[in-house]
Amino acid sequence: MTKFAISNNTPVMSLQAIEQYITEQLPNVTRMDSFGYIFFFYGADQVLPFVTIATADNEYDHQSNLNREGVFRVNIGLSKNTFHQLFTDLTTVWDYTTLNSFMPHPDYAAQHFICILNPDENKLPATIRYIAEAHGVAKERFDRKQAAKRKQAE
To answer: What sequence ranges are listed for the domain DUF6194 (predicted)?
Structure first.
């Protein structure tokens, strides 16, 4: 993985660092903004994002109280193995308003998504590593789909 400098732990800088890492360091990424979310996909197949960033509450998602000034949530789709290494007890009750703590995603934990609100300088490196893993998972999924399409076309 390419080295990535983290220079400031303010929420805006953390958000900018994450977006910059995804768009400048990870290949074949497309972005879409909608409903207060930033969706990042691998390739042109915009079906399942590997990372989303939520910057505001909406009618479907208000568990994290994102309407607080400067608060954002990074949602990251990990491998099943990594997800289960992080969270061995899925019966834990989580406070999804807690800043700087990795948690299973409030709605998409079954799909192995984790989330973190405002990762600071201590959690930002791990956040970046998990995003890199999510990108790899998305690439594998994309490559499998492309191979299946080629095989079907034969």
So the answer is: 13-146
pLDDT in tens, 95-121: 999 999 999 999 999 999 999 999 998
CA distance 141 to 11: 31
* pTM for the structure as a whole: 0.89
How many angstroms separate the CA atoms of 13 and 7, rounded? 8
Query: What's the domain range around 114?
Result: 11-153
H or E element that contains 126? helix 124-153
Place of tokens 């590593």: 129
Q: What phi and psi values does residue 20 have, to the nearest 5 degrees?
A: -65, -45
| 8 Å CB contact between 112 and 104 | no
Q: Give the domain CATH number at 38.
A: 3.90.1150.30
Of 80, 99, 75, 98, residue with least CA distance to 90: 80
Residues 35, 17: Cα–Cα separation, whole Å: 22
